[in-house]
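Protocol step 6 of 9: fold each sequence in the batch and record its structure tokens directly after the sequence line. For illustration, a two-sequence batch is reproduced in full.

Sequence one:
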Amino acid sequence: MTNRTVLISGASIAGPTLAFWLHRFGFKVTIIERADELRLGGQNIDVRDGAQKIVRLMGLEDKIMEANTGELGVRFVDAHDRIKGVFPKGDSGFGTAELEILRGDLAKILYDATKDNVEYIFGDQITSLNEHEDQVTVIFKNNPQRSFDLVIAADGIRSTTRTLMFGEEPVIKYIGVYCSYLTIPRIESDTKWAYWYNAPGSRVINTRPDNEGTTRASFSFLSPDNGYEKLPLAQQKEILKQKFTDAGWQAPRILAALEESKDVYLDGISQVKAPRWTKGRCAIVGDAAYCPTPMTGMGASLSIIGAYILAGELSRHKDHIDAFAAYEKLLRPYVEDIQNLPPGVPWVAHPKTKLGITIFNTAIAFVSSKMIRNISKLLSGKEKKPKKEKIKLPNYT
């Protein structure tokens, strides 16, 4: 094997997963992270489908299960907290998955699984990449320059490393909705269920349980691309107050906690559309390459699957060019399928009027009703049929 040293930018989900498998396949791996320490916290994510198989191969499935948020499913409610529809955990493809975990907890599990075999550099970032025939010279903001056989960007949807590699070629496609996440104090009426509430004006409020004695909340609202994600945090908070002051349900409680919350995050929900994921000795993986949006429920899982396939193909091929080509050929149809959002998303889930909300809740009640679920199970037979895999994972091990 000719390529032995790899630099990965980003220490969240895709980066450490890629590092885990590259180390297992004999590569020497360094991860650089611009934050001064591992970024913990964050909202609930889940590990689904092929990603669950991969974490099982990594020996991490039990650890993820132990760190589960305990979420029982999703309840849709109205302004008076009356339940309109219920989707229990594992009862459908919608909502709570078997492996439901806080993003920071998953990042910590992946870090612990790699820290003894992978070099981590925190508090620094790549500022320049100079590719040569047999290596890439990397200029850092703080550390001395170094050379690596390969450089991989895994630093999120707004990756600066990706820009160094591809310029403006990858497109961040805004899908018409802003979302803000924050952690708020838990109160006695909070349960182990997640809650979804629609307010007039195409606004949605969610609350979700965690395993830390607090509650995770989010606001989302339809809007043109106004660049809110670029504003200072104080201005973002003012926008949220203006948007949700009259929204009802739990809005007053969440807005009251907004000022004290330490992890408020506001961004436009977007997809990354990149015509290619590799260039020379550089590549992108995870959200930096193909963010599918949180609305698919597949962001973390796709990062894990993509990292596994990229590492596996690099182990399988002697030449990185062949490995990169195989990575794209195998993964791109799967990514395109996930990024192909159902018709009406996100507008269907954000009805504008009270009548629209009534119709939406009626549809939710119908789909989630026990009678419909029982009829579905009866028609499909007593034994639940295994789900057809959308991607066949190679056995690199």
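Sequence two, same batch, same settings:
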Amino acid sequence: MTRLALAAMAGTAIEFYDFYAYGTAAALVFGPLFFPTASPQLGILAAFGTFGVGFLARPLGSVLFGHIGDRHGRRPVLMASLLLTGLATVAVGLVPTYDTIGIAAPLLLLVLRFAQGLGLGGEWGGAVLLTGEHAPAHRRALWTSFPQTGAPVGFLLANGLALALSATLDEADYLAWGWRVPFWGGGLMAAAGLLLRSRLSETPQFRALEATGARASLPVAELVRGHWRPLLLTGGGLSLVFAVHYTISTWSLAYATERLGVDRTVMLGCIMAVVIVSGACTPLFAVLGDRYGRRSLCLAGSAGLALWMVPLVALLHTGRPVWMLLGFAGTAAPFAAVAGVVAAYLPELFETRVRCTGAAVGYNLAGVVGGGITPVVATALSRGAGPPWAVAGYLVALALFSLGCFARLPETRPATAPGTAAEAAPA
């Protein structure tokens, strides 16, 4: 289990590294480099628009790779999704800017961002199923928290490299070539991830399906026909987690540097600090999820985030690093409460034959609502001179929506004795 979990975490970290490297570049440099004819505010909006395309592609990727995972196994999903995302990421680092090829530059960004999203759409479902379907039932949340921590590890790698480049390069060099380095590094990491994943074995639950001929012929059709309710509710419930993450990691980075005049290096450091804390808390809350249930943790985390959104925006608007860091840190525990259990919770809501598609589509629908839209909406809502209270209102409304969705989902924690590997009954 340790080898499987670490391999899943490493691959997930690499794929999320690729995805986050784009988000950091969109917040810092894509506006002036790829949309120079627009005003600074509109340039950021346009850059975040290309960022959002990746989230629109993720549900399509989850359908495509979910079909592969439910028909041909979880392992091929992990290989194909990582290969696609890695190639697209290297290509982003090679795209000429608007001054060189004109309108073709942002168009190429759109295409490559779509490919990134397509690959990442299949990654999460394959990684959590690889660990979850091997894990003993009474420790399933703990083991599936390993690929969950891959996301913050990928974020730290991407932003750590961006922070190092920002601190060591002057503005001209960073704009000329420095921003491209994280994308080139993503290619080397993807190659290492493919080598690591080539040694993984298929899950016992999929092998059992294959042996009995019980695989779904068209998983997405079966999913929509018989599992549409948990699919929509998981997408709505998880949207808050994506929204909070990208509010902090992407929108606040652009808002603080462009509107408040905060140094880029300082902001990257504050964001990385809170990601470290929330990532470290994730397996701790996973242990609680194995003991007290998945739904209860999701409800508690969503409620905590709802209460903290107004203080978060108020502290961010001060422009003072200590207060901004405090605002970010207040999201760490409730965020980790949800993130720590969803990798076990979502797959348990679906039957084995459609589990890869169901978990991946539900997760990535949340990415569209919470991640793809939030930076654009927050940028549009924060155009005034005062504190962006409209952003806080938007996040509170989304938190209440997510809370309602989780309230309508059942608990799935398996009632098994320690040492057994019985599967949870689907809703």
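Proceed to step 7 once all outputs are recorded. Observation for sequence two: Residues 2-194+220-405 form a domain with the Growth Hormone; Chain: A; fold (CATH 1.20.1250.20).
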